[in-house]
Amino acid sequence: MKNNYKSDAKKLALSFVAYSSASIFGPLIVISGIGWFLDRLFKTSPVILIVSVFIAFIVTNVLLFKKLKKVNQLIDQYKNKAIKERVEKIEDNKDIKETKDNKFD
Fold first, then answer.
1. How far apart are CA 29 and CA 31, in angstroms?
2. Local structure of 70: helix, strand or coil
């Protein structure tokens, strides 16, 4: 059972890394590209590009915070599930021990 949790945790971590990379570079490339294009169009060399980089930074943070909230919820679900399974296993072991003790009475 532990290996299953480990593989789920690895998948979760890898997906978060992939998502965060895309969340950083995606908006940066797209929004900065638009800013660069608008700078060339309006001949305002670095002004719109710098503003667009700051906008990309804000968009990236919003995307990452939303994803982090979902990841934290998944981690809590896994913790609760693991705790519940451990409690059930302990209760089953107590039941087995009680039935063995009753056989020898």
1. 6
2. helix
